[in-house]
Design goal:
Strand order of the largest sheet: 1-2-3-6-7
Radius of gyration: 22 Å
Largest sheet: 5 strands, antiparallel
Shape: globular
Helix content: 10-25%
Oligomer: single chain
Distance between the termini: 14 Å
Order of helices and strands: HEEEEEEEHHHEEEEE
Number of helices: 4
Number of strands: 12
Strand content: 15-25%
């Protein structure tokens, strides 16, 4: 199981782990003072986030029930965001299923599929108190939704399909066993859980696999190194080498389903693994 650092440089804050009550407590206090104390606090949050190799961190994750989180969904630290008093005004009907974990759940062994809107319309205040309206998409939208959940007392585990919850249960039990205080909060607020958007998966999503059946007119095959890490071709690399003057007669592309698959047409899969080592 992944271990979070027991201390961080330049701050007394540490990461709150499940089932600490700050992770479930709602509502969180709105940010009203946009002063040097807030700037200092959010800088410490960003520092903890980077040192933990995360992409986002909400105030409840450091034991503070305040309505603020920080995140950076990009490679440059110049793209870091401070989000105060956020609202998600609109969720796209299109959704994406990817794996998520959480620093507060020691993510390496407690990750699972989470469905998120492909884009969202947001309103919030930045660290200076300025009002911001942004439409976010793809990975940034997923990060924002994950951190927004924390301000509602929701953990990504609450969104896992039953199969992933069962797989993560051993790790959850370990965290419960490590918590020695008598104020553990294991479940989210009933109203917040009921109002979660998008709704959680009812079963693990398995995307269709597309396979080209090829009938070769000659004994010579098409040789190459394309594919995931195969022969140095890399993911999606077209490193194949075609033998001269050898033709192939492709048949119609067929879809092969691997296991159970949701028939919900909203779902699409981007191919990313969003939070496997995070939050």
């Amino acid at each position: 199981m992944r271990l979070n650092p027991t201390s961080f440089k330049g701050t007394n804050f540490i990461i709150a782990e499940y089932p600490q009550p700050s992770l479930r407590r709602v509502p969180n206090a709105p940010i009203r003072e946009f002063d040097d104390a807030l700037l200092s606090k959010t800088e410490e949050m960003l520092s903890i986030m980077y040192e933990s190799k995360g992409v986002g961190l909400a105030a409840p994750q450091i034991g503070l029930n305040e309505n603020v989180f920080v995140y950076n969904a990009f490679d440059s630290k110049r793209m870091a965001r401070v989000v105060c008093n956020p609202q998600i005004i609109q969720y796209s009907p299109q959704v994406i299923v990817e794996e998520e974990g959480c620093l507060s759940l020691r993510s390496d062994e407690c990750a699972g599929q989470v469905v998120r809107s492909a884009w969202i319309e947001t309103e919030y205040q930045n660290e200076l108190g300025q009002k911001v309206k942004r439409r976010l998409k793809d990975f940034e939208a997923r990060v924002f939704q994950h951190e927004y959940d924390h301000l509602k007392g929701i953990l990504c585990y609450d969104r896992f399909p039953p199969e992933d919850r069962e797989a993560a249960q051993e790790s959850i039990n370990k965290l419960l066993g490590l918590y020695e205080d008598d104020d553990a909060e294991t479940d989210p607020d009933e109203s917040e859980f009921k109002n979660m958007l998008p709704r959680p998966l009812s079963g693990r999503y398995m995307p269709p696999l597309e396979v080209d059946e090829v009938k070769e007119k000659d004994d010579e095959a098409v040789k190459g190194s394309a594919g995931f890490g195969a022969g140095g071709g890399g993911f999606g690399a077209g490193g194949g080498k075609k033998i001269a003057n050898k033709k192939k007669d492709p048949k119609k592309k067929q879809k092969v389903r691997d296991g159970k698959r949701s028939n919900d047409p909203r779902f699409k899969v981007s191919g990313k693994t969003a939070f496997a080592n995070r939050k």
